[in-house]
Amino acid sequence: VPACPDMDNALISALTDLCFQEESITGSDLLFVFGSNVQHREIADIIKYMLDNELVDQVLITGGIANYNGSFYKKKAESEQIKSFIPLEKYKDKRIYTERKSKNIIENIVEAKKIISFKNVRSMTFLSHSYASTRAALSLKKYFPEIKLHCIPLPLPTDFLKYPISRQMWSKTEYGRGLIWGEYLRLLTYGERGDFPIDEIREALDHVKVLTEQNSLSVA
User: Fold this and answer.
1) CA–CA distance, 9 with 4 (Å, rounded to integer)
2) At residue 215, does pLDDT exceed 70?
3) Residue in 176, 161, 114, 132 with CA at minimum distance from that of residue 36
4) Percentage of the residues of the chain whose pLDDT score is greater than 70
5) Which of 64, 76, 72, 131 is nearest to 103 (CA)?
6) Residue 45's closest CA among 77, 80, 76, 83?
């Protein structure tokens, strides 16, 4: 969560469009759940909703044991913590897989490919934290360019209950602005090193850069 530049409405709008994917809860061949060290019950509730409404019959939950700065360390893998809130006996006719080694978005995908075959997956709904949903989508596109993607963005709670890190509310707090500015820097840095196809967002990245420079000049 780095220090961020001054943000006017134009820069806030540009960062929102860049970092946040629109919600798309629809039927698909697979629900791909990115690992999270928080909100395990909330994530499980979404999984149950998708299963109960026959939107998916195959779920892959990723996430190992978090050990990065700011994480809540627990000895149990993130995927197992999420699955612990799902009554598995209710879904005996469904396929629910867990991946327990990964510690970031790319590893979520790489390790997931070792768990199941994606050969017959034509459409995939993914669930990730809303602020990282563009990075998650682009990372999936790198590994599964032929699969149609749908997004369920999960707002991240903050100390200010009224202002979660969501498409609508992220800019209302200093923490939110810092987190999204950090996400812009991650998109730029990770994209340049080849983690995902950066050309898809190159224009949006350049637009943010121009607006930031304009704001800097106006403040000076």
Assistant:
1) 14
2) yes
3) 132
4) 94
5) 64
6) 83
Predicted TM-score (pTM) of the model is 0.93
Helix 174-192 and helix 202-219, axial crossing angle in degrees, nearest 10: 130
Please choose, from the candidates 115, 149, 129, 128, the residue with its C-alpha nearest in 3D space to the C-alpha of residue 28.
149
Name residues whose C-beta falls within 8 Å of residue 100's C-beta, 6 or more positions apart in sequence. 63, 64, 77, 79, 80
Q: Which residue has the tokens 């850069």?
A: 209
pLDDT for residue 26 is more than 60? yes
Q: Dump pLDDT digits (tens) for 149-188.
A: 999 999 988 776 678 899 999 999 999 999 999 999 999 9
* The length of the chain, given as a count of residues: 220
CA-CA distances (angstroms) from residue 155 to 36, 100, 121, 170, 183? 12, 23, 27, 9, 14
Alpha helices, H only, 96-196? 105-112, 133-143, 174-192
Torsion over CA of 157, 76, 103 and 41, rounded to 10 degrees?
A: -30
Q: Mean pLDDT across the stretch 53-63?
A: 97
Largest CA distance in the chain: 63
